[in-house]
């Protein structure tokens, strides 16, 4: 690994010398179409889905498609595109689930480059990216040879603004008001200008984040499938919880690009995002379904009083540079990038057990940290071949190191509270013990991973027919060091990943596209750690497996797209994925730490699965109906899958049955005003692991905006979550594998959380 890094560093220094030499020869900036700030701030027309020229099936949405609803994050923006679902809390959009699959199956890129995130499943939470930075979003449905193939569900490429996307600047000032009266600020500024023959862009963003929710849980000793009268006969307890997320996101971004007379060009870009967040929960458990806090002084109904607070600090930053130059009648490009993710979390939970007197006070503290950094070096060459063909080939190097640690302490002591009136007069507060922290088994580890990829493809394009054939070879060498068990293991593998894309222009406005490609999903970090974690899955133990290999999939997409007038487009797409070597929990047949009836379980590559669906999208003005200033938007996705686990057939975990969005924008040119609305709904999702089964349902989400424009100013009022969206979950919980087979419940739980409307007012000023 040391020699690998030295060679790559030499290559990076050589690249720096190339760019320095090239800048000496710069004389003037080649002209590109540059949008002025007034056009971005003061709209005169409605933005629709763009029609992409990429051969891989791609949907492209520019910022104009999203901005009138003033999304706060990239996640909020993605709620309006086809086939993207979320399994987040109400008012949040973090882990994007393309085609309803786990975020681990979706590759998230920023400006075409990979970025590390917090998820042990290698996912990246898209709510880390402020929507204000976005120029466009690309939904890439199928893999290509010139792009990393870690994208069984697809790829989301978030393209940020650069110097050629803005001339001048604008400011955004406003805030959000929540239903409990809390107000959060929203401030941003972006400026683009010419500098030294090139284009410079600078941006800054401060976004207050707040999410107040109320949760209620009803727990029973059995489920309705076993006991029709479970609501009365099997009642265990009820929990009422307030859950408030409060924080700030701060971001800075910059880019510089210069184009030289010989058609060579150089660019460098950087982004920094910092999140400080507090999650504050307070809950009460009652042994009566109708009890309230007013009953406490009389005693008897309150079982536990629990307070939980979590302090989260996350930082993402990356820097990328590229130099593109003519070579051998073609074009070569070198790219170098560095990205880092840091997270520190402190969590404290205190619980007062009031079920017996004297009452017992329990406290648990957890400190965790992640330091994930990776750098990449890429080279790609494109060479014309004949009149309508082009050859591309290149190489990709990546080195990644991820350090994770989790420490915890637990304390317990009896309080001198022997009467309920004493408790009522002394409410529970967070108190710190003098604690000694111990490493959690499997919680302190280092992953080092080196990748070397090469690819080649050939593509043909004319007015009628276009195609692309290619292949990518990916080789990965990993080393996993679990410091809690003092074990180091290697995990190495390589794959050949072919891809093919075809497009045929049936008419001037209609075209058919088809794609076939092989793609991957790499193993989760915590599954690779060679540690035995007791009672991780119900009462069963989990043993890591450093020999896990990636899941691989052969996929097919078949679509038809038709242009409606100058701006509109309608499309339909069918997709299918055959997934091999699924990573599922298997039984080692060894007895678990809890004795007879429990087992040691282990993630293994076992079995196959398939994913399929139909995706429909429409965005068009209604000029054909004599309504040229009205735009409508609609997308609907039917999602399905099949996999076999311990207990039989099911869908891929937590895949929604469907998701759809419908909306409109009405522009009023004479009044220099506009208004619009969107409505979104996603279907139920079911997930099953050893020890627990959960079904998740969401109510609908409804948003509106009203806009007034002046010469250089736009004022918008946006209302979101106007239907008081709720998230409802039912949990089936079991102690052992045998209990889950025979449906002997440890607990059946119904949980619901709800949040109220959010109103925001935003003023944008162009200069």
From TrEMBL:
Its main location: membrane. It is found in: Cell outer membrane. Residues 1-22 form the signal peptide. Residues 228-248 have a biased composition (Basic and acidic residues). It is a multi-pass membrane protein. Residues 213-227, 289-299 have a biased composition (Polar residues). Residues 211-251, 280-299 are annotated as: Disordered. Residues 219-699 form the TonB-dependent receptor-like beta-barrel domain. Keywords: Cell outer membrane, Membrane, Signal, TonB box, Transmembrane, Transmembrane beta strand, Transport. Residues 61-155 form the TonB-dependent receptor plug domain. Belongs to the TonB-dependent receptor family. This is TonB-dependent receptor. It comes from Pseudoalteromonas aliena SW19.
């Amino acid at each position: 690994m040391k020699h690998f890094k030295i060679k790559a560093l030499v290559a990076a220094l050589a690249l720096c010398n190339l760019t320095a030499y090239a800048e000496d020869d710069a004389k003037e900036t080649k002209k590109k179409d540059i949008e002025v700030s007034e056009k971005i701030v003061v709209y005169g027309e409605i933005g629709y889905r763009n029609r992409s020229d990429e051969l891989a099936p791609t949907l492209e949405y520019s910022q104009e498609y999203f901005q009138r609803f003033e999304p706060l994050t990239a996640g909020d923006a993605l709620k309006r595109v086809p086939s993207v679902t979320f399994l987040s809390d109400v008012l949040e959009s973090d882990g994007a689930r393309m085609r309803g699959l786990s975020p681990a199956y979706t590759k998230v890129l920023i400006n075409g480059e990979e970025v590390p995130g917090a998820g042990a499943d290698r996912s990246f939470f898209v709510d880390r990216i402020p929507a204000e930075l976005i120029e466009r979003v690309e939904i890439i449905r199928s893999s290509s040879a010139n792009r990393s193939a870690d994208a069984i569900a697809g790829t989301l490429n978030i393209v940020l603004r650069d110097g050629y996307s803005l001339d001048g600047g604008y400011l955004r000032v406003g805030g959000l008001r929540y239903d409990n009266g809390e107000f959060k600020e929203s401030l941003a500024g972006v400026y683009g200008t010419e500098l030294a023959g090139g284009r410079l862009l600078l941006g800054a963003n401060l976004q207050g984040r707040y999410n107040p929710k109320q949760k209620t849980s009803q727990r029973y000793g059995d489920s309705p499938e076993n006991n029709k009268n479970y609501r009365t006969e099997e009642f265990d307890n009820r929990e009422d919880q307030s859950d408030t997320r409060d924080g700030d996101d701060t971001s800075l971004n910059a880019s510089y690009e210069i184009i030289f007379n010989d058609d060579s060009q150089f660019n460098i870009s950087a982004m920094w995002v910092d999140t400080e967040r507090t999650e504050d929960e307070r809950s009460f458990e009652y042994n009566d379904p109708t009890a309230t806090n007013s009953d406490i002084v009389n005693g008897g109904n309150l079982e536990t009083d629990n307070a939980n607070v979590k302090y989260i600090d996350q930082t993402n930053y990356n820097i990328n540079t590229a130099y593109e130059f003519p070579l051998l009648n073609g074009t070569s490009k070198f790219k170098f990038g560095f990205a880092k993710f840091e997270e520190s979390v402190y969590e404290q939970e205190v619980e007062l057990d009031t079920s017996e007197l004297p009452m017992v006070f329990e406290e648990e503290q957890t400190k965790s940290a992640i330091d994930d950094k990776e750098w990449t070096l890429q080279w790609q060459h494109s060479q014309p071949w004949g009149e309508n063909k082009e050859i591309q080939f290149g190489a990709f190097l990546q080195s990644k190191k991820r350090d994770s640690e989790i420490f915890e302490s637990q304390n317990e002591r009896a309080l001198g509270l022997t009467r309920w009136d004493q408790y009522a007069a002394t409410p529970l507060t967070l108190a710190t013990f003098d604690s000694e922290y111990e490493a959690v088994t499997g919680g302190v580890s280092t992953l080092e991973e080196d990748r070397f990829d090469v690819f080649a493809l050939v593509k043909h394009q004319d007015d009628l027919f276009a195609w692309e054939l290619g292949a990518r070879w990916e080789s990965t060498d990993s080393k996993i060091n679990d410091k809690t068990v003092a074990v180091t293991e290697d995990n190495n593998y390589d794959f050949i990943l072919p891809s093919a894309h075809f497009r045929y222009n049936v008419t001037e406005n209609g075209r058919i596209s088809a794609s076939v490609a092989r793609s991957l999903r790499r193993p989760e970090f915590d599954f690779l750690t060679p540690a035995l974690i007791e009672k991780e899955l119900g009462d069963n133990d989990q043993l890591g497996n450093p020999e896990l290999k990636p899941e691989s999939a052969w996929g097919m997409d078949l679509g038809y797209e038709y242009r409606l007038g100058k701006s509109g487009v309608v499309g339909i797409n069918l997709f299918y994925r055959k997934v091999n070597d699924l990573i599922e929990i298997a039984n080692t047949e060894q007895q678990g730490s809890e004795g007879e009836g429990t087992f040691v379980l282990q993630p293994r590559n076992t079995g196959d699965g398939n994913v399929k669906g139909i995706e429909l999208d429409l965005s068009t003005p209604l000029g054909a109906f004599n309504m040229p200033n009205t735009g409508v938007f609609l997308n609907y996705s039917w999602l399905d899958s099949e996999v076999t686990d311990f207990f039989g057939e099911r869908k891929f975990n937590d895949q929604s049955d469907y998701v759809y969005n419908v909306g409109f924008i009405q522009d009023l040119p004479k009044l220099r005003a506009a208004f619009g609305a969107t409505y979104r709904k996603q279907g139920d999702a079911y997930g099953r692991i050893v020890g627990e089964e959960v079904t998740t349902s969401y109510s609908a989400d409804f948003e509106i905006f009203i806009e007034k424009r002046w010469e250089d100013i736009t004022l918008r009022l946006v209302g979101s979550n106007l239907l008081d969206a709720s998230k409802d979950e039912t949990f089936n919980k079991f102690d052992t594998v045998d209990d889950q087979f025979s449906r002997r419940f440890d607990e059946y739980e119904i949980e619901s959380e709800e949040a109220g409307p959010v109103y925001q007012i935003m003023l944008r000023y162009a200069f």
